[in-house]
Write a sequence for this structure.
């Protein structure tokens, strides 16, 4: 390179926009409701007692959090218990997982994807950043692709300097 020449950043000039799903996953608060705490003698959920217990739950702790409803003990939980909790929590947070940590991860991913302002990527060439510590990577990147596909001109996977083409909008 000769003196006086400027270095041109081709990646910057390419017009590529990068989506790093990890940016949207950070700072998401999670809360867990473990139904084992409501079992009678650690075995069974009594409807009347459970309904009374639900009245005392401080729902403010669930605002703007992703909630996991689980039971970490070996008990049969009736469907109405999940329905009661859902009816109480849905007005506070739309992001609720039922099951285990894996189910929570999927809801976290969907919650993060819903935070992306899709209009910012209208007609854009998008690179989905492939490195990072995203859990359930295959699920995460497939769901992200599904969400952005209708909005973008193209999708690539990897880093802007080294990508794998995934999708190109037909002309």
């Amino acid at each position: 390179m000769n003196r006086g020449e400027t270095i041109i950043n081709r990646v910057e000039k390419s017009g590529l926009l990068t989506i790093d799903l990890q940016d949207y996953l950070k700072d998401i608060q999670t809360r867990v409701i473990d139904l084992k705490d409501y079992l009678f003698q650690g075995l069974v959920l009594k409807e009347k007692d459970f309904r009374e217990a639900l009245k005392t739950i401080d729902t403010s702790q669930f605002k703007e959090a992703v909630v996991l409803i689980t039971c970490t003990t070996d008990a049969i939980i009736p469907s109405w218990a999940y329905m009661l909790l859902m009816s109480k929590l849905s007005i506070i947070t739309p992001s609720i997982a039922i099951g285990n940590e894996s189910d929570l991860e999927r809801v976290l991913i969907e919650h993060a994807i819903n935070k992306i302002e899709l209009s910012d990527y209208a007609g854009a060439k998008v690179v989905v950043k492939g490195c990072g510590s995203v859990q359930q990577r295959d699920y995460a990147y497939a769901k992200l692709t599904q969400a952005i596909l209708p909005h973008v001109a193209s999708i690539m996977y990897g880093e802007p300097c080294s990508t794998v083409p995934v999708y190109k909008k037909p002309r």
In short: The radius of gyration is 22 Å. Residues 10-25+113-168 form one domain. The CA atoms of residues 65 and 118 lie 22 Å apart. Residues 7-13 have pLDDT under 50 and may be disordered.
